[in-house]
Specification:
By secondary structure, this protein is of the alpha+beta class. It has eight helices and 18 strands. The chain has three domains: about 1-55, Molybdopterin biosynthesis moea protein, domain 2, CATH 3.90.105; about 60-170, Alpha-Beta Complex (Aldehyde Oxidoreductase, domain 3), CATH 3.90.1170.30; about 175-279, Molybdenum Cofactor Biosythetic Enzyme, Chain A (3-Layer(aba) Sandwich), CATH 3.40.980. InterPro entries: MoaB/Mog-like_dom_sf, MoaB/Mog_dom.
Length: about 280
């Protein structure tokens, strides 16, 4: 820590908050700990009665947390991302368009294994909206060894793809098949179909239609084929099921040459959506 004249402090880093008091208006920190003094700050500091201030005695090899956070953000960010204002060693990564998050889980783990480095993100392959915050970089100490940042930048360069990026959604023609004897025979009202319809619209895709099938493998397969014949590029199959691997819907999808990668459960509607990929 070093005490210097305000006029000589340009480019120096504050060691503590500086409070500005304007009677009847405000009493709050005008400059925060870690703030880098700029030329335009000098008149304000003098008006606050600050002839001298305590600043960081910059040791060679150390860099300020804001610079470190900015370098980290630039190292991990790929297409579809912009940056927030840097504040207190933190930079947020913002989606520039609607799309899906594509993240290198290995890269994120490697970066977070470094001391004093934090990269927090939303879950991989999650849909996001333009302007949404999807990640944040953070450097913990006020000043950090530049070698740590250089190591982080090196980790990011090891990967062929950026550690974080937003890929735009592709518009698809979508068909929906709802299974279950209770819905097929009209004993209960289907409530999950409208939810899927809204989601399809939110994804920028086109819903070709929704059909219903009894708890019958051949009927489920026939409904799926009908949507494909009508030009569907994606078929969503939903219905009241258990998570038993022998359930009819996964069996029907496998019978058409596909494979079941994920099974989602909706707590609100007691329905499931099955994601099946072609074989």
């Amino acid at each position: 820590m070093q005490k210097i004249k305000v006029q000589d402090a340009i480019g120096s880093v504050l060691m503590h908050d500086l409070t500005q008091i304007i009677p009847g208006k405000t009493k709050d920190a005008r400059f925060r700990k870690g703030h880098v003094i700029k030329e335009e700050d000098i008149p304000t500091l003098l008006s606050m009665g600050k002839e001298h201030i305590f600043v960081w005695d910059q040791t060679p090899g150390l860099i300020h947390e804001d610079e470190a956070a900015e370098r980290l953000a630039k190292a991990v960010a790929g297409p579809g991302l912009s940056f927030s204002e840097t504040k207190e060693g933190k930079v947020n990564l913002i989606a520039e368009e609607d799309g899906l998050i594509y993240a290198s889980e290995e890269g994120i783990y490697a970066l977070n294994s470094l001391e004093y480095i934090i990269l927090a993100t939303l879950h991989n392959h999650r849909p996001v909206k333009k302007g949404q915050k999807i990640a944040g970089t953070r450097v913990v100490p006020l000043m950090i060894d530049e070698n740590v940042v250089i190591e982080a930048e090196g980790i990011a360069r090891r990967f062929e793809e950026p550690i974080l990026q937003i890929r735009p959604l592709q518009s698809k023609k979508v068909g929906v098949v709802t299974t279950g004897s209770e819905v097929y025979h009209g004993r209960i009202q289907d409530k999950f179909g409208p939810v899927l319809q809204r989601k399809v619209a939110e994804w920028g895709s086109v819903l070709l239609g929704q059909t219903f099938a009894d708890d019958d493998v051949e009927m489920i397969q026939e409904r799926i084929r009908e949507h494909i014949e009508q030009g569907a590029e994606m078929v969503l199959v939903t219905g009241g099921m258990s998570v038993d691997p022998d359930d009819l819907t996964p069996t029907a999808i496998k019978g058409l040459g596909g494979r079941v990668d994920h099974l989602w459960h909706s707590c609100s509607s007691r329905s499931h959506a099955v994601a099946g990929l072609p074989g």
